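Quick log. Single chain, no ligands specified.
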Amino acid sequence: MSNRDKAIVLVSGGMDSLVTAAIANEKYELSLLHINYGQRTQNRELKAFNGIADHYNADNRLVVSIEYLAQIGGSSLTDRSIEVSAADINSKEIPTSYVPFRNANMLSIAVSWAEVIGASRIFIGAVEEDSSGYPDCRQIFYDAFNNVIEAGTKPMTSIIIETPIISLKKYEIVKRGIELKAPLELSWSCYKNEDIACGVCDSCALRLKGFQLAGIEDPIGYAVIRDYRNC
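-> predicted structure:
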């Protein structure tokens, strides 16, 4: 039995959540949480999650479905009538891939589980500076949610959300993953495809740019590889 404190890590299967799990693993006993919400690449993300959980020997893992987010719609990730837009890294507009208030739904589940298993930390791989501009990936959101946790849990409960990569650029996340020997080849970031990454959606573009600026070859395959270093 581990004598380390318990931490829940939200693991989508993407690179950011993988590196976040690697960081948490340095100090905490991991409990890994994966949430299906009716996204296009749900099956591939679940495969990535289980591969990552196996790598870290995380026997305590939980997979939850909140597919009501797909019923609500409003995102190209959950509504197939909305096209997944091609990457525009320099755009200041919130892209169609934004799933309205998704992270709040996910964190609520994580907090409930943390209360039950006695976890003191919840890790999430949100990135503010080098992300697609999602409002629920900002530090101000997580600061506010920590206040919600304090107000809405039992008095003896102490749960804090940790966002260890929130201020990093994608190339810094890649380098951190290499330093921690995170299995980057197991991760999946593409918003559109489940067989080979498209290379042109926002998530693929940001990931490719990170690897390109880090001077490291991405271990997964792409249908299209563009040079995003100057974007």
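The mean pLDDT is 95.
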